[in-house]
Write a structure and sequence with these properties.
The chain is mainly alpha-helical and 245 residues long. The protein has one domain. It has ten helices and four strands. The strands form two sheets. The chain has a two-stranded antiparallel ribbon with strand order 1-4. It has a two-stranded antiparallel sheet with strand order 2-3. Helix 3 packs antiparallel against helix 7, helix 4 runs antiparallel to helix 8 and helix 8 packs across helix 9. It starts with a helix and ends with a strand. 15% of the residues are buried.
Amino acid sequence: MNTIMQYCEKSKHCNNIKYSKLVTAGNDPNISKGMRYSQYISTTKGRYKRMIPIDYVSQTNLFIEQYILQNGANININLGNLNVFIQQYELKKNIINNITIQQYNSLITDLNDWVQEYKNNNGTNINISNLTYFLNSFNSYLQEYSQQNGIVINIDDLNIETITTNYINGTVRVEVYFNYLSRIFINANNDYLYNLLIGIYRLMPDDKSFYLKNYANNINSYGIVWKNYITNRPKNDSINFLKYY
């Protein structure tokens, strides 16, 4: 190799390619590299990504609605479990500071009697498609009770779409949301609740999905092992609500 190089260096027959001094659109030997770079960054347009906001609330609620339509005939709600949730998480959270203990205990007693009467007329388990009817009846009962007893009962709307919206918007805690879903979609094998959560994990914002997945895994209320999902903590940035295309 060295012999060839030495030969070419001494030989007049080897071509020495010199730098072109011809001025073209992309080459001007009369200016410095720094000036050429300055021209490049001032005239070249960089590529950019278009940011499109994601409507997490709509897509999550749409999935839940489709999930109910697909499985609703097979999902029965245990009114006893739902009544426990209402007392522990809704009534106690929202009205315990506004009424006396005696008024609260009286309300709970009457509520249990009302739920028992509802069971006698409609059965212990109701189909998920009848949940809205139950909640409407429940809200009507609370309004009538508050008017008769002169107390203010202010609870969140317990419809699935509303409580999901409130969780995504940050007005409902993760433990409340998970317990609400578990009271409704739980069954002997946990299939309905598990498959519902798997579906909504990928539709919610990263932080809401992360905390819901980890809460479900840590609480493990019904003995099921929540598997097959990634538990990466979302990045704390100001644009985690945007999707890039």
